From TrEMBL:
Organism: Siminovitchia terrae (Bacillus terrae)
Domain of life, per lineage: Bacteria
Keywords associated with the record: Membrane, Transmembrane, Transmembrane helix
Name by which UniProt lists this protein: ABC transporter permease
Transmembrane domains' residue ranges: 21-42, 62-83, 104-133, 153-173, 180-201, 221-241
């Protein structure tokens, strides 16, 4: 028996470092997701045009990182689910660990992945503008950049990271629910689809209120509070569910 007693922080640190090495493929897949979303974004998110009797016509195309951010949110959501699978949980048994340390290491990994994914999504958005500027026939362009508007740039990065944390925590909770009972593999999509249909048909006001609460907050500070509180609740719920799962035999 070892005479060295490891603290919880030491165990979490070792598990976190192990997960960062073991899940390198997650970040490689993120690059693939960004490349695919970049291709989808080359056509622009919307466009408009006008012409006059003198023969002058103006076409306006709008390019943004919205599609890239959405693809990245899907990626981090799936990552949150994958990290709860049985094979991943069994990897933690290579350490002298408990469920608390495993959950904390998972949360730290997801927070790191969220920060990297959110920041990268915004940067790929700027790469999109550079590609479009050189490949398309553009006479005039406008937009924010790191050098031209650093405040807007860092607000965009912060907001993207907060979205990633929120969806990572939701994915982690979804994965834990599925691990508790496999029937939720089929039940959760059905419940989500049914709820979405109910909101879209029977209660549009509630749907708009939910959307505005999460996606239409104008204050970054208030949005940060909302996102972090919801994420903390989702992570806490995941930890509670993990304590109800059977131990490894």
């Amino acid at each position: 028996m070892s005479l060295t007693e490891m603290s919880l922080s030491d165990v979490v640190k070792r598990q976190y470092e192990f997960k960062m090495r073991a899940f390198l493929g997650v970040f490689i897949s993120m690059v693939g997701v960004h490349l695919i979303s970049l291709l989808f974004s080359l056509g622009g998110v919307s466009s408009s045009g006008t012409s006059s009797s003198t023969g002058i016509s103006i076409d306006v195309s709008y390019y943004s990182a919205d599609i890239i951010v959405i693809f990245t949110m899907v990626w981090i959501f799936i990552t949150g689910i994958l990290i709860t699978t049985k094979s991943v949980r069994y990897d933690d048994f290579t350490f002298v660990a408990n469920r608390l340390s495993s959950n904390l290491a998972n949360v730290l990994f997801l927070l790191t992945a969220s920060a990297i994914g959110g920041a990268a999504a915004v940067l790929v958005g700027f790469l999109l503008k550079v590609i479009v500027f050189f490949l398309a026939d553009i006479q005039y362009s406008t937009g924010n950049s790191l050098m031209g508007a650093p405040a807007e740039f860092f607000i965009a990065v912060t907001a993207a990271i907060l979205y990633m944390i929120l969806f990572a925590s939701l994915g982690y909770l979804t994965g834990m629910i599925v691990q508790v009972n496999k029937i939720f593999v089929f039940l959760l999509p059905a419940l989500f689809a049914g709820f979405a249909v109910y909101l879209g048909i029977s209660n549009v006001k509630l749907a708009k209120a939910i959307f505005d609460f999460i996606f239409a907050e104008s204050s970054l500070l208030l949005f940060a509070v909302k996102a972090l509180v919801l994420s903390a609740l989702f992570f806490a719920g995941s930890m509670f569910l993990s304590n109800r799962m059977e131990v490894r035999k």
